[in-house]
Amino acid sequence: MAGADTPSPLISSRADLIEAMERGAKPADQWRVGTEHEKHVFHTNPLRPVAYEGEQGIRALLEGIEKETGWHPFYDGDLPIGLRNDEIAGGISLEPGGQFELSGSPMADLHGTAAELSEHMRVTKKVAEPLDIHFLGLGVTPIWAVDEIASMPKSRYAIMTKYMGETGTLGTSMMYRSATVQTNLDFSGEADMVKKLRVSLALQPVATALFANSPFAGGRDTGYLSFRSEIWRNTDDERTGMLPFVFEPGFGFERYADYALDVPMYFVIRDKKYINVAGESFRDFFDGRLPQLPGEKPTIKDWEDHLSTIFPEVRLKQFLEMRGADMGDEAHVVALSAFWTGLLYDDISLEGAWELVRNWSDDDREHLRREVPRLGLDTPFDRSSLFDVAAQAVGIAEAGLVRRNRLNAKGQDETIYLAPLEETVRSGKVPAQRWLDKFHGEWKGDLTRIFKEAEL
User: Pathway, according to UniProt (predicted)?
Assistant: First the structure.
């Protein structure tokens, strides 16, 4: 949640860059699960996107939730752009097209994640109902073009929108039309981080396939099961992708810092204002040669802000962010965290997942990233299809959750949250394929039907 210009020490050496990530390490008994999700917003009377201002706008929604919860607003200039729950470190923020994001609190188990999501949706829908604001659980808004969606008043988005128009081909679609669900997980140290990052990068296309839920855009069948993922493939090659260097011998925090230093910057925050430095080099900033701030050296906060503008399939900060999944219904939101928790938070499962992917080449991983958005689980792979790998991965995750043995009040363990994935493995159809069946069948091409059926 940018917007504050908090005091931060100057970076004095390369070691500071590494330490900014390394200090996230913690013992296993302190590992937590963080879940973030973005919801498209829309009005029904008539069917249209939601603007920021106005009696039925996003600002009114934020102000209503503030009154309901007591959470504290944060601002860009004089305009509220989100809410913080200072007690448990959760919060609400706005994506460029008004996608309404919950940054969930770090939870000890998936039962806490599910309860948090349920309460968030209860409060949000209660406030939204009289505003005729509704929420859509899809990876891409299905009918509106980028220029039909109102931009939220966040200074960083104005900078990014201009830059996205100059790099890639679908960067503004990523900003304004896409929505994701993300799982954030901890590591115990550098070796643990490296293994988890390698496993999760390799398996990210599997998650993309299992959670594929964006077959429509611009009012039509796009030919992709996860058009959101295809959008990311055409956004900005310098800050996205599968990071093949992660699989090279000797990879660690320092190598990731070197990569991040070479990713072009977007902005620097000074006096609570965003300075446009899009395309400039953090290496130059590190050396005091940033043209917009001549002679000035970066702070740790500047580095952390920069790390937040890098968008690979898995992002390293003080934790690992799984970024490959489309937004879906509530069950799929928690299922994503269940999938990755089961794979990465149990030593046996982590080793099993590594054995599943350790022999894949850079070409294998790139083949999956390229083909999965279109073909999903039917992507040809290793003399079969990705379906077989996905089924094994779900099984490994389930076994990991069984071994974790975190029980709710009913005595149920966390495997209950894998139910959506078990249904996908059983049926062989991901959510996008189920929507396509309806679109080409009972809906008779009327895509407005999805706003009712995919409403959260």
Answer: Sulfur metabolism; glutathione biosynthesis; glutathione from L-cysteine and L-glutamate: step 1/2
